[in-house]
Amino acid sequence: MTTDQKAIAARAKALPQHVEHLGIVITELMKFAHPADMVVSRYFRSNPRLGNRDRALIAEASFAFLRRKTEISQFAESGAGPLARRLALLSLLVTMIESGLGSGNRAESALADLAFVVHPNEIDWLQRFGTIERNTLAPLTRVNLPEWIWNALGSSVPKDECLPLAEAMLKAASLDLRVNTIKTQREDLLGVLNDLGGRYAAEPTPYAPNGVRLKGKPALQTQEFFKNGFAEVQDEGSQLLAMLLEPKRGEMVVDFCAGAGGKTLSLGAMMKSSGRLYAFDVSEKRLANLKPRLAKSGLSNVHPVWIDNENDAKVKRLAGKIDRVLVDAPCSGLGTLRRNPDLKWRQSPQSVAELTQKQLSILTSAARLLKPGGRLVYATCSLIYQENQGVVEAFLANNPQFELKDPKEVLRDSFPMMGDLPIGTSKNSSYWQLFPHIHGTDAFFGAILVRKAAT
Ligand SMILES: C[S@@+](CC[C@H](N)C(=O)[O-])C[C@H]1O[C@@H](n2cnc3c(N)ncnc32)[C@H](O)[C@@H]1O
Fold first, then answer.
1. What ranges in 169-227 are assigned the alpha helix state H?
2. pLDDT number for residue 266
3. Mean pLDDT of 353-370
4. Which pLDDT does position 1 carry in this prediction?
5. CA distance 35 to 366
6. Is any ligand 1 atom within 6 A of the Cβ of residue 125?
7. Ligand 1 atom closest to residue 326's alpha carbon, by position in its atom list
8. Is the CB of 379 inside a 6 Å radius of any atom of ligand 1?
9. How many other C-beta atoms are found inside a 10 Å radius of the C-beta of residue 303?
10. Mean pLDDT value across the chain
11. Active site at which residues (predicted)?
12. Is 263 in the pocket of ligand 1 (CB under 6 A)?
C-alpha cells in the first residue's frame, strides 16, 4: 500500500462519523439563518475532537451540498431512512466524485470509498445518482439556481453563455495568493512554496502579475511566508480589479469600502507604500481584521478610518482632495457562488433592490471626494445588472460632472492582456467584467468614472 492509499483507507474508515456530523451541519445550513462558513466553523468549535481531515471533508461536502442543493434535495426524496442521512450521503458522493478526495474521481470509485458507511439497500440508489446524465435534468435542476437568478444571468451575458456560466459557478474555486511586492517577488515566493511539497504545488496565475495559484488547499496560517506577510489570500479576479484604479506613488487615495483590506493592501503595494491611502469602512470588526494584516504587510501609507455611514463628517472633510477612490461596494456577492454557494439561497430580489439603493448612495458620497480629473472605480462581485450597470447609469444621470471611461482605452498600455484586449474588457461594452466560465475567476464588475477637469 502506498502512503496515499493508506491515507485514503484511514479516511474511509472514519466515514460513518462523517455522515453523522455532516447530517447535523446540513440540517443547520438549511435554515439559511447565517453565512455557511460561520455555521460550519461554529460546528467545528463545538466539536473540538474532529481532526483536520475530518473537518476538511465535512466542510467540502457541506459546500458541495449548497452548490448542488436542488439536484441533491430532489433526488433525496427518492431514498429511504432519515432525510439528513440521505442528504449527507449524496453530498459526500458529489464531493468524492468532484474533488478527487478518496480514491475516486468517478462514480464507481467514489462509491467504493463510501462502502464502509452505506447500507446494502443504499448502494443502488447512490449509484443511480452518481451516473445521472446531467444534460437530461430540467434546466433549473441542472444549474442549481433559484429561478430569479437564472433569469437574471441573461442580462449579464449573452443567452448562449448562461449555461456555461451557471455550470462554472457549480465548481469549487482555486486558492489564489497575491504576492506582497513590498517584501518579495513572485518568482522567489514560487520557489519557497514549491520547496514545501505537493500540497503547495504553486504556479503563476494566468493573468494577475503578482498572483500565485495553489493546486491543493493547504493550511497557510502556520507557514513562515504567510506569518511574515509575504503573501495574502486573494482571488485572481480581485487582484485584477484593484489594478483598475492604477494608483501612483505619492497620491491621495481612498478605499471607501475597505473591509478587512484585501484590496487596500494591493493598492498600498501599488503605491510603493508612499502617499496616503485611507481605508474607510462602517464595520469596526472588519477594520480590526485589517490591522494585523497591515502590520505584517510592511506598508506605512495606510490609514484605517471607521465611518458611521457614507455621509460621515470624516468623509466630507476630504471632499475634492482625493486623486483616486475605489468603491468596492457591499453587494449580493452572487459572483462568488463558487466560494459562497449559500448566497444563492440567502439573497432575494428584495435584498438586491435594497442593496442597489445603498450602492447608489455610497457611490454618490464617495464621488464627492475626487479632485477634478480624479478617477473612481465602482466595483462589485455581483453579476446582477441592477447592482452594476444599473447603479452607474443612475449615478451618471444625476452627476453630469462625471464621465464613464472605456476600460479598453484607459487600460490598453498598462493591463494584462487577453488576446488583443485588456483582460475583462470587450469590444461591445464600456464596462469591465470577469466571469468564471471565461476567466476562471469569481465574477467581478468594474466601471471607471472620471470627474471632468472643468468642474
Ligand atoms: C465587498 S466588501 C469589501 C471587501 C474589501 N474591499 C476587500 O477587498 O476585502 C464591502 C464592504 O463595504 C462595507 N460597507 C457597507 N456599507 C458601507 C458604507 N455605507 N460605507 C462604507 N463601507 C460600507 C462593508 O462593511 C464591507 O466591508
1. 186-195, 224-227
2. 98
3. 98
4. 36
5. 28
6. no
7. 6
8. no
9. 12
10. 93
11. 381 (nucleophile)
12. yes
